[in-house]
Design brief:
The protein folds into 2 domains: 2-19 and 232-418, Enolpyruvate transferase domain (UDP-n-acetylglucosamine1-carboxyvinyl-transferase, Chain); 22-229, Enolpyruvate transferase domain (UDP-n-acetylglucosamine1-carboxyvinyl-transferase, Chain, Alpha-beta prism). The chain has 14 helices and 23 strands. The protein has helices spanning 22-31, 48-59, 86-89, 97-106, 125-133, 164-174, 190-201, 234-246, 262-270, 308-316, 335-341, 371-383, 393-399, 403-409, and strands at 2-8, 13-17, 38-42, 63-68, 71-75, 108-112, 137-141, 144-148, 156-158, 180-184, 205-207, 213-217, 226-229, 250-254, 274-277, 281-285, 294-296, 321-325, 345-349, 352-356, 365-367, 386-391, 413-418. A hairpin with a 2-residue loop joins strand 4 and strand 5 (71-75). Helix 8 packs parallel to helix 10 (308-316). It is globular, with a radius of gyration of 21 Å. It binds uridine-diphosphate-2(N-acetylglucosaminyl) butyric acid.
């Protein structure tokens, strides 16, 4: 079992280059199943979710060539199998995109009921509703989800909740459907736009991605022979922005899209930090204790739930009492118990947590309870006085590329140690 050993406190200073977006990559990879050809994908993050996805695609008949840790070519001409391996797909959340893609390509699909971070109930009723609207029959039993259709027919889909995954799955299933599909109350996250851009580059006709009404005119086929570069990771960039604030540091964050970070920038300005926009990079600086504030997590362009634990660390050492209201995932305050072991004073009460700011955190053994909690606890270890040992690194490795190396380059004293 690996752990991270972090010696603090450190003020982070220097430059970091942001990787491709995890949540775009894990949708673009299955989207290649819709292509009867070869395509090249660049700026893929080198994370375990991407490597697992590539293995799943290979079991379905895809041929993958790696040119570097971040660049692959996928040949999806020989996709024949419609059953994805249950053990691999049930381990992570984004495997549900295989349903939309294989339904579109082959008219049938089967995956294990998706797992992923334990963030509370994670229903997929809106995914199923979208597939059924397009004519598919869906069955959920014996730990798997199966979907089947003779011919997908375009239709109007109204999402009862704003869902990233259901919006992308509805797009995937309708790209090759006959006729026009509309998705109303669609999610607007940058990775939705990225998946639509990828599919359009391959020959799809998707309009309106990034708004809450998306229109897909079905096309007969998607051609390959294209190269696509994954959008920079909004959440990784936000993680380093908040690390700069928490550590009273000075970080130049390169390869990011500042507009995707507007809601984080606004919050940083409110708590007394400084953000300079250089077009494709931003510099975040902080030279005092952060002010208290309130945050409510919301779908994009609201404040992202995936940056909630990271701002929780900032609030734990802020001047005054801050409040977070988590409106997306019911179990996303599990990290607060770990931060309290480090001297924080946080009281979670259902969907709300109250952060009574303390002057400093102190190092302690702590456990990553999910991916973003893990990133937040790294930041906590960097700013805490003394040694922090962070366990359960498999969560962090799923979604952050070379995270300890990136923090080390900013001055953090952080080592990965194997412990038997
Ligand atoms: N929901 C439903 N029914 C559905 C789908 C969702 O009620 O059929 C509800 C959920 O329970 C939740 C809300 O709708 O309350 C939003 O869920 P969404 O479907 O948007 O989440 P997701 O697609 O499963 C993605 C990211 C998550 C991120 C959320 C919200 C991927 C692979 N995962 O999940 O990322 O938190 O959107 O932005 O894209 C992470 O990266 O750490 C992570 C958890």
């Amino acid at each position: 079992m690996d752990k991270l050993v972090i010696q603090g406190p450190t003020k982070l200073k220097g430059e970091v280059v942001i990787s491709g977006a995890k949540n775009a990559a894990v949708a673009i990879l299955p989207a290649t199943l819709l292509i009867n050809g070869v395509c090249r994908i660049e700026n893929l993050p080198n994370i375990s979710d991407v490597r697992t996805y590539c293995k799943i695609l290979e079991t379905l008949g895809a041929k993958i060539k790696w040119f570097s840790d971040n660049e692959i070519e996928i040949d999806t001409r020989d996709i024949g199998c419609t059953q994805a391996p249950l053990d691999m797909t049930s381990k992570f959340r984004a495997s549900y995109y295989i349903l939309g893609s294989l339904l579109g390509r082959c008219g049938a699909a089967e995956v294990g009921i998706p797992g992923g971070c334990n963030l509370g109930a994670r229903p997929i009723d809106q995914h199923i509703k979208a597939f059924e609207a397009l004519g598919a029959k869906v069955d959920v039993s014996q730990g798997k989800i199966s979907a089947k259709v003779k011919k997908l027919l375009g239709n109007s889909i109204y999402m009862d909740v704003v869902s990233v995954g259901a919006t992308i799955n509805a797009i995937l299933a309708s790209v090759l459907a006959e006729g026009t599909t509309t998705i109303d109350n669609a999610a607007k996250e940058p990775h939705i736009v990225d998946v639509a851009n990828f599919l359009n580059t391959m020959g799809a006709d998707i309009r309106g991605a990034g708004t809450d009404l998306i229109k897909i005119n079905g096309v007969k086929e998607l051609r390959g022979n294209c190269t696509y570069s994954v959008v920079p990771d909004q959440i990784e960039a936000g993680t380093f922005m908040l690390a700069a604030i928490a550590s009273r540091g000075d970080i130049l964050i390169k390869n990011c899209i500042p507009e995707h970070l507007d809601c984080i920038t606004a919050k940083i300005l409110e708590i007394g930090g400084n953000v300079e926009d250089y077009g494709d990079s931003i510099r975040v600086t902080m030279n005092k204790r952060p002010n208290k504030a309130t945050v409510k997590t919301l779908p994009y362009p609201g404040y992202p739930t995936d940056l909630q634990p990271q701002i929780g660390v900032v609030f734990s050492i802020a001047d005054g009492t801050s409040i977070i209201n988590e409106s997306i995932w019911e179990s996303r305050f599990q990290y607060t118990a770990e931060l309290n072991k480090m001297g924080a004073k946080i009281t979670p009460q259902g969907k709300t947590a109250i952060f009574e700011g303390v002057k400093e955190l102190t190092g302690a053994p702590v456990y990553a309870t999910d991916l973003r909690a893990g990133a937040a606890l790294i930041i906590a270890g960097i700013i805490a006085d003394g040694e922090t040992q962070l366990y359960n690194l498999e969560h962090i490795d799923r979604g952050y590329e070379n995270i300890e190396e990136k923090f080390r380059n900013l001055g953090a004293k952080i080592q990965r140690v194997s412990e038997n």
